[in-house]
What does this fold into?
Amino acid sequence: IIEISEKNGQALCWIELNESGAPIKWTSKNIPEEEIIIYGPLRQFGAYFMPEWWTSQDGHWRFAYLEVNGSKDEPKVSFQPVKKED
It folds into this structure.
């Protein structure tokens, strides 16, 4: 199991791996209810190996990768809170 935590030690999520080291289950408790995602088998997409599909534990939603492309550019992502405008 890989645990991902905040700097203060608060756990954000856990990723369970199978005997080969592939991810099989992701669990998050940083929302009001526990969320669990089940991963499909790893598949090669060019130079990348990723789970072929994901589904919620209850089957409410699911998706499959059709194509995976990488980029050498750093993504423009911010985790800063967004202020609501009045």
The chain has a mean pLDDT of 87. The beta strands are 2-5, 11-17, 23-28, 35-39, 42-45, 48-51, 53-56, 62-64. The radius of gyration is 16 Å. The chain is about 0% helix and 45% strand.
